[in-house]
Each structure stands twice: as C-alpha cells, then as structure tokens.
Amino acid sequence: MSRFMVFQHVAAEPLGTLDALLRRRGHRLRFVNFSRDPSASPTLDGYDGLIVLGGSMNVEDQDHHTHLRTELRCIEAALKRELPVLGICLGAQLLAHALGAPVLRNPRAEIGWYRLETTEAGRLDPVTAPLGSGAPVFQWHSRHFGIPAGAVHLARSRDCEQQAFRYGERAYGLQFHLEASASMIQRWLDTPHYRAELEAAGLGHDVEHIRAQTRRLVHAQQARAEAVFSRFLDLAGSAPKAASAQALSPRWSPWLPRPRRAELSLSRHS
User: Fold this and answer.
1) How far, CA to CA in Å, does 130 sit from each of 121, 124, 133, 165, 251?
2) Are 109 and 58 contacting, i.e. CB atoms less than 8 angstroms apart?
3) Which residues pair with 139 in a beta bridge?
4) Fewer CB in a 10 Å sphere around the end CB: N or C, the chain?
5) Is 0.85 topped by the overall pTM?
6) For residue 265, is pLDDT > 70?
7) How many whole angstroms separate alpha carbon 197 and alpha carbon 206?
C-alpha cells in the first residue's frame, strides 16, 4: 500500500478533492503542517511519494519561513530517489526552485477562473492527458516558475506561460489549483488576507463574479482532477484492489452531483 507525505503550509489550503481520492484509494498519508510546526524535520524514509501544497508565502521568503529550506531538501531527496512528486502552486514553485529554475513575480496576478491551454506534450503526457486541449481551472497566484532545464513544458495560460511541467517521469509541478473545491474557494474568498489580495490585483472581476463562475465550473474541474490525480497516484503503485472501478473512473467522481453540460464549456478568460 503506497504511503504519501503531504506538506501543508496554511489551514486554508488543504488537499481539497485530492484528499477524498487518496483515502478512497486506500493510500496512507502523513501530513506535515508547517504552520503548526515550522520546525518539523520530516524524512521520506518509508514513503512512496511526496505532495507539496500551496501557501501564502513565496520561495524568496526562506529567511522568514525557514521550513521552506526543509521542504527544498526533502524535494531534492525525493527527486534523487525518483519518487513521485506533485507540487501545487507554491509547491510547484518550490519544485522548480529545487531544480534550479527561477521563481519570479508574474506580470499580472491570476485569481479566479482562467482557461488553461495544454502543449502538445501536455496532451500526450500520461498524467495531464485528461485535460485535453485545455480547460477552465482555478488560479490564485502572483508568482510563476521557470521551466527547469530538462523538464517538459505541459501547459500555459494567456497571462502565465509556465503553468505545468514534468521533470523525469514522476515529478509534476502545477501552478493552478486543480484540487480546489467549492468550499475551498469560498473559504479563500471569505479570508480577509486573500480578499485583500484580489482587490489589490485590479483584475477587473470581484468576489461575486468568482462565486458565480465557481458554481458553473467547479464540478467539471473536480471530474478532471479525479482523472489527473488518479494517474499521478498510479506512479506510486496501482490503487489497492478494494478501490472500485467506479471510484477510479477518469470521467466521473461518485461524491459529486452530476454537472450540467454547460459546466464543460471553456471560456477564454473569465
């Protein structure tokens, strides 16, 4: 049975829909919550994969958030052992940084729903192929990573060229929040710090617009997330036999209401 280490940075950014998938598949998890224990010193001994989640800090904040250095060492160790590594938002930036790529301020923040465009490599990639040619995805970031030397560029958006990459066969960095559920997004919109960031970004859309777009698009994103994340988790070993074929279906997630056809439409930029 595969065991995953999960690095969490803030309470508002958990595993989201990935949590239910991991548990239904029967994977064992260990959470390291650096907001609660910034001095934690985890090791990957006995683990089959590493997941690094998002957070409000940035890669350049290592002097203030010293746990980021701990995380970078763990990421480097995972890469050397060729373990599956999934970095989401800040996690993807840490992965890129560990691989020698720069992490810089994006010319324009992305907060809300944006159309993701996959590259040819992304459409053929065994993990990101379920995204097809592109899809609306939820974003919340003001930094972007460079594509590391030797990595494969998998996706872009209009305002951020570097949205996803694969390094080797088992390490993936995703700038976007494919794991975001409706409740997670609502929590971010209700958090003063996050809300102030949205207002300061001057993007031309507000909280109510994002809420409306979330109601229309989130269920289709969750179905795509199920497919993409299932394929990533398979890199650490097939799902336990107890998991049903329905539970692992790349087309549907059994805990979600069935989405309306309109929710699959791909808007250029909302």
Assistant:
1) 12, 9, 9, 15, 9
2) no
3) 112
4) N
5) yes
6) no
7) 11
Q: What is the pLDDT averaged over residues 38-52?
A: 97
Task: Identify which of 65, 157, 146, 52 has the alpha carbon closest to the alpha carbon of residue 111.
Answer: 157
Amino acid at residue number 206: D
**Residue with tokens 């992305």, as numbered in its chain:** 110
3-class DSSP assignment, residue 118: strand
Looking at residue 85, its amino acid is V
Please tell me the distance from the alpha carbon of residue 73 to that of residue 67, in angstroms, as a whole number: 10
Distance from C-alpha of 228 to C-alpha of 251, rounded to nearest angstrom: 10
By annotation, the residues acting in catalysis are 89, 177, 179
Question: Tens digit of pLDDT for each residue in 14-38?
Answer: 999 999 999 999 999 999 999 999 9
Helix orientation angle between 207-234 and 192-201, rounded to the nearest 10 degrees: 110
Q: Where does the pLDDT of residue 40 fall: very low under 50, low under 70, confident under 90, or very high at 90 and above?
A: very high
Mean pLDDT of 207-213: 98
Which pLDDT score is estimated for 252? 31
φ and ψ of 153, to 5 deg: -80, 125
CA separation for the pair 169, 82 (Å, rounded): 8
Q: Quick one: which of 107, 122, 43 has its CA closest to 81?
A: 43
